[in-house]
Write a structure and sequence with these properties.
98% of the residues lie in helices and 0% in strands. It has 113 residues and is mainly alpha-helical.
């Protein structure tokens, strides 16, 4: 009977040892899974930060592009206005030249008469 009890104790110890090994293996796998989850969470956090940075850069670029476009529109408007002013000045000068030419012709005619 003692031998039987000894065998049972031995078998129970072997089962306990196997269960301990299994428990240790599962704990190791669980720790590995936790580390992997932490790694993936960090990668996700980094990706989100990168995405926010890219969105901010895109917003900045859009603002700069709008500003550049607005600057171009202002310059175009100024150039158009200057062009209109110059054309008006040329038209006035043309009228003055024509007036002077007519006056010159009248004077020349008077001198001939």
């Amino acid at each position: 009977e003692l031998d039987l009890l000894t065998k049972e104790v031995k078998m129970a110890q072997e089962v306990a040892a196997k269960e301990q090994q299994r428990s240790t293996k599962l704990a190791t796998e669980l720790e590995f899974a936790r580390l992997k989850i932490d790694e993936l969470n960090q990668a996700l956090t980094d990706e989100r930060a990168s995405e926010r940075q890219l969105q901010q850069e895109l917003k900045t670029f859009a603002v700069e592009a709008k500003s550049t476009l607005a600057d171009r529109e202002v310059w175009r408007s100024l150039c158009d206005e200057r062009g209109r002013q110059r054309r008006a000045e040329v038209a006035c000068l043309s009228v003055e030249v024509k007036t002077l030419e007519l006056q010159n012709e009248e004077q020349h005619q008077r001198l001939l008469d």
